[in-house]
Structures are given as structure tokens and as C-alpha cells.
Protein: Homoserine dehydrogenase
Amino acid sequence: MSEKAVRLALLGCGTVGSEVVRLLHDQAEDLTARIGAPLQIVGIAVRRLGRERGELPVDPALFTTDALGLVKRDDVDVVIEVVGGIEPARTWLVEALRAGKSVVTANKALLAEDGGALHDAAAEGGADLYYEASVAGAIPLLRPLRESLHGDRVTRVTGIVNGTTNFILSSMDSSGAGFSEALDEATELGYAEADPTADVEGFDAAAKAAILASLAFHTRVTAEDVFREGMTGVTAGDMASAKEMGCTIKLLCIAERGPDEAGHESVSVRVHPAMIPRSHPLASVGDAFNAVFVEADAAGQLMFYGRGAGGRPTASAVLGDIVAAARNRLAGTRAPSESNYAHLPIRPIGAAVTRYHINLDVADKPGVLAAVAGVFAKHEVSIATVRQSGREEDAKLVIVTHGAPDANLAATVEALSRLEIVRSIASVLRVEGGA
Structure:
């Protein structure tokens, strides 16, 4: 066993960073045995020195507000970043990687916006870049995509990757509550932030979708490439309608590769609420859990499930990356570098083949169904099922379509809104999984 310690610089000591410190201390003996050398924290960068962080098993003298100075120190082997945000985190990590220092980060926003800059810096410095904790917390997901399935062809990744929204939708499904009531419950239990916008509007899931798509399809995908639709418009009525169809509603990230209209391989990445059959493995994922369903040519269907957030689960993923980076430092080797050879174009949402569930409030008179069907035919959208109910002011049409280009479906909805016989469009939801 080497007597020389692998020296760590920790950037950030909040919820996740504090748990990283505790786990490094509590598991020090086992980690040393696994790595072949001890791990030593040589500095911790924080925004404010006087902030209360509870009892941490580290020397207070290790704390500093000079993150860049810590990164540049010669006695640092591995930089661990759990601060988040784009800047100054990007500057710190690019500096570390170019200097040949391994980086472990949980920064999904930075990876989704400019992961290419980090990968380029890692290649320039011959350094490792690990980010397992950036998606789905403690669930071992990114390494299987990057390494275990590297010999296979992944065709589709479908996931529930945000625990807050999954808790809200699961609560709405089980209790019949509306969105606001379920959000209040999530806030009281600590699942939702004071400002839940990043979660409920899909920004968090879109960043994770970009990272998953980049790994799965060997193509650089950024958050700007991801179609995003939040779930604030999902109502108790939508949930009731889904139940009648034997479905539930989840906020899904969906990344798939396939031919575009010209027959060329391309990638589609989107985040939106969708109905899925209760028979689908993702339908039973409740509470604040995450799950990702991967489909590959040879491996078939795989599912990864577990807690996707929280200080300790996320810290567990960070520690796994630290161990891998430390082993590589001692062995003088590197982790697999970025694989972006495919350079597949991004298929816009309008060209993606989707299905819609459309709930219409309509006039109660003859010819309504024929007029509505005519709109679908005009836009080359095939109807799978129609359910007509109610009389007079409660007359409704619920329509589920077959797969069609999303642009055709969107145009259909727009045309329906202009029909005099359609009083209002109560809701429009995409349908996944053959419901």
C-alpha cells in the first residue's frame, strides 16, 4: 500500500459537501484499503467562513474563501465541486483540468450548458472528469452508460429524474389533489425548494436529459437542445382522465435516436409531462424516487432505480467517483475520455413522433365529432380512440391519437381551438408507452 495520500480539494460544503466530508471520515479505513492509499482533504472552499455547518470532522483551518487559489495549489490531486451554477464553477474546473488535476463534480447545470468546455480541458490536461452525481443521485447510471454499455447501441432513454415533481405527481395520483395542494405538501416535507421553478418547469430534468443523451448517443447535447415543458398545468382532472385510461402522469425525460424525415440518424431529447400505462415499469415509481429506463439493441431493456437526490445519496455517488479518480492517479491511468464521435444532429420537437391525449369541451349538437375528425384528417393525424360524454354544457370529447410528427399534432390543436363548436381545450398531454 502506498504511504502517499491522495490529496483532495473540496469546493462547497453545503448539504452535499458536508456529507462528503462525513463519509470520507467515517469510511476512511475502508476507502484506504480500496484505493491503496489514504484520502486527505487539504482544503475546503466556502462562500462564508462563519456559517454554521454542524459538527464536521475536519480542522477548521482547512476552510477558505479563495476557491481558485485552492484549485491552483500544487498539493491538490483531485478537485471535488459541489457548489453548482455556471460561474465561477466553470473557471475553477477548467483551471483544475488543464493543470492535470482530476475533477469530480455534481454540477448538472454546468455540464448541460457547457460540458464540452470541461471535456476539452480534461483532454488538454490529460485529467479525469467524473460526474456520476450530476444525474439521479446515488443511482449508478452514468458509468453504465459510459462504460458498461459502450459496446452496445443505446436507442432510447426514458426517465423520471426529478424527485420533487415525481412526489407531486404521485401525490396527485393517489389522493386526487390538485397541483397547488400537492406542491404545498412537497414543500412542507422538504422535497420542494422555496422557489420550485427549476423543478416544476422542467429545467432541472432538462439539464439531466442533456447529460444522459450525450452519453447514450456519443453526441454533445446541451440544455438548449432539449425541448422542455413544465408540469404546472397538470390538473386533478387530467389525473382522473389518466386513471380512466389505465394510466398515470409522470414528468419524463425522453432521449431517443432514430431516423429523421430524410432517413438520416438524429437525436431527439425532450422533457414534458406524459401519460404512461400503469403496466409500464416507470408508472410504479412513487414518492421522491428516480428511475431511468434504458433500451439498447443487444442488452434489451434495463432499469435503474433509487433515490435521486438528498445530501447523503448524492455524496455516495461523489465518493464513488473520488475512489475511481484516486485509483487512476495512483496507477497513472485515466478514465475513459469523452465519446462524441457520432456528432448526430438534434431533431427538433416538431419532427419528433409523439402521441397526444386531447380533452375538449364541445357544443352539444349533431356533427361535432365529424367536424373534429375532419381537422385531424386535414393535418394527417390518425385518431386511436375517441370518448364522448356529457350533455349540454358538460359535453366533452376525449381523443387519443396515433403517433405523428409533433408539429402536425400542434397544428391540429391550434386548428381545433378555432372551431366554433369547441368551447375550450381543457388539456393536452403527450402519451408515451403505448397507452
The mean pLDDT is 94. The chain has 14 helices and 18 strands. The first strand starts at residue 6 and ends at 11.
